[in-house]
Amino acid sequence: MVRTRIAPSPTGMLHIGTVRTALFNYVFAKANNGKYLGRIEDTDRERSTAEAEQVIVDGLAWLGLTPDESWVKQTHNIEDHKNAVQVLLEKGCAYECFMSPEELEVMREEQRAQGKKIGYDGRHRNLTAEQKQSFINEGRKPVIRFKLPDEDKVVWQDVVQSEISYPINELDDFIIMRADGTPTYNLVVVVDDHTMEITHVIRGDDHINNTPKQILMYQALGYSVPEFAHIPLIHGPDGKKLSKRHGAVSVLDYKEMGYLPEALNNYLMRLGWSMGDSEKFSMDEAIANFKLKNVNKGASNFDFNKLDWLNAQYLKEADNVYLLDLLRPIFKAQGKELTATIEGYLTQSLGELTARAKKLPDLAEAASFYFNEPPFTLDEKSAQAVATAEAKNTLTALHSVLAAENNWSHDHLSDVLNRFVTDQGIKFKDVGMPLRIALTGTTNSPSVTHLLEVLGKDESLKRMAIMTQ
Length: 469
Ligand code: GLU
Hints:
Elements: E1 3-6, H1 16-31, E2 35-40, H2 50-62, E3 72-73, H3 78-90, E4 94-97, H4 101-113, H5 129-137, E5 143-146, E6 153-158, E7 162-167, E8 175-177, H6 185-195, E9 200-204, H7 211-221, E10 227-231, E11 234-235, H8 251-257, H9 261-270, H10 283-289, E12 300-301, H11 304-317, H12 320-333, H13 340-353, H14 360-367, H15 380-387, H16 389-403, H17 410-424, H18 428-440, H19 448-455, H20 457-468
Parallel strand pairs: 1-2, 2-3, 9-10, 11-12
Antiparallel strand pairs: 4-5, 5-8, 6-7
């Protein structure tokens, strides 16, 4: 069974690139009836915080990317990590190295002076028991290093990048346990992925250099080696690695800016993978069509305009009740009280208002006139537009026409308004503008027919009467 995982470190925000990695892991697992798991890589105790962990959990939950099983915390597996180090020592695949940081620096200086490769040269590989004891007597604490095998290269078939061949002489006997007894990243990842029975390690291509070390440890520990798929990083519109200078990189920023999770998921999936020519597709469609090997090898550039475009499409299609739930906290933050009446208006009107919005705050702005109570405070332009005798007469005449109407459907109201315009011998805007101001207190709103329908007969007539007083 396919088992994938997302393994973020809780040391800051949840980066948009991590989310895309999570998405690919999720979609690939689902596409193969497998499981998508999560591990919090919190072994760096100094940099890991509980808040950062919560940000990861909440951010992924917002996007529907909560792992299928409960989150694994790396620090909870510390005994397994230490045991694996013991196993490697016993197998002769690892050894103690007592060199001090100063001695290592001297070694590197010499290497530099002689134009040699810089790196640990394995000089403590074969210490005798006496040599070790004398280091211990000096008060030295050893690190544990992995003993590189006597081979030329590590080769793997990367699902995204194709075959990767890594010369072993580019590595040195790397540290797997620090002098303070804490195991290092490359070791713990291998042990945890093995314990969690991960079959596919799908992660950013910034980890390619770790993979040879990890494969060597899988082999040394006698674990089966998973498939690796290294996906390219996300770049900014200028083709450089995405960073704060390009705009938001934290997922919560996107939530705050008012993007819908569906739109962001769609956009991030599309960034690095394509489903034919479609720009817009659901998660289910992505799952039905996803092939890991079709993920692009090259980096993709983040295009904020495209994300805005997609978000606008999702807003237009969204269910009004769903939209209202998303808008509620925005209105609350603006101190706007969502009464049952206003909620009723919005439930009918949001579909119409989404035509004017790219993101949720735009939609909240477009809907804000529904919170205005008559008599309205008008801006100068609106006040002038309704102050004329013509405007007042037109509104009064329309008031009596509408008062006689019992059919308040959109189509009928539209007919009534058109007939009114013809009968009065005026242009539509001659009635449209004062009517809009009378109904909303603003000049920027959806069609007047829609407004009449949403506000209902009594409220519409009341507002028109107030304006003609
Ligand atoms: N904790 C690592 C990171 O956040 C995960 C590496 C991996 O997926 O193996 O980059």
